[in-house]
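thought: fold this chain, then report.
action: predict
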Amino acid sequence: MVGSDQPSPWWSVGRYADRKPFLTARRAITKAVRAWFDEQGFAEVESAILQVSPGNETHLHAPRTEIIGNDGARATRYLRTSPEFAAKKLLAAGEAKIFEFARVFRDRERGDLHLPEFTMLEWYRANTGYDAVMADTIVVIAHAARATGIGRFSFRGRTADPFAEPELLTVAHAFERFAGIDLLATIANGEGDRVALAAAANARVRVTDDDTWSDIFSKVLVEHVEPNLGQGRLTVLFEYPAPEAALARTKAGDPRVAERFEVYACGVELANGFGELTDAAEQRRRFAAAMDEKQRRYGERYPLDEDFLAAVAAMPPSSGVALGFDRLVMLASGALRVDQVVWTPPAGET
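observation:
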């Protein structure tokens, strides 16, 4: 029995009633977005959550579990941080336009904009440039706003019109405008010059001796760039520097930048998209470097999914994007935190 000095559980009648308007908005948004994908000829898929590798990014952490076979043999598996590996295997198998409302999991994440378990809306187009999924993202956000009837997103004193023409801004221009840094001058042969960026950023952020080029880049991005994005209207931040390419291909004609973009509203990152890399050897190199850095920082590394790397080599030129669905619902419903818009909060929380 809950004591009088303890808060009532989230499922109590009074507290659940407070959540109902946000959940009603979630249903409306889900229905509208799913209908749009259907109209566009996308196939909705449901890919496996248990994976050999949860993803190979330095700062993403996945819950680990173990499966036991009929013979008693044990094998380590991870809860996915994204459906990306499975989606690209489907592209290699011949699917051309797919989307998924995917449940994904990340350790070390909890806050107003983060949950350890959340819904990621992810979709892919084969044989299509990444400007197409960039345009898709703006349309999906507008459909969410239209589904709830909200005219303007608001978050922490910032507002954005989801129906206005979005701002298109390269990362290099954003660093120049908001931090006075010539970012591309610190990149050569696809690699970041740590000394050059440290010198350029030293007056803007605190740089420590063990900061890498990527650390300094992230500090400037978080402290000086992101707070200025998605103000009054959506911002599409694109042409990420090559050292931050992740699973994106580099831009033809300018190897300093990659075909990667992110979409912001009210300073909140909503989506992250790529013109997908199809060079398996390069993807392996990037993953190995990221896992070496994860080992150095956190004392752990995740295995490479060899089946995924084989699929990368077999898949057609494609583009894809991952959108934080709970964050979109939060903005489109007027909620203040993502945990207000999920049907049940993280296990163990009241």
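thought: worth noting. The chain has a mean pLDDT of 95.
final: tokens above.
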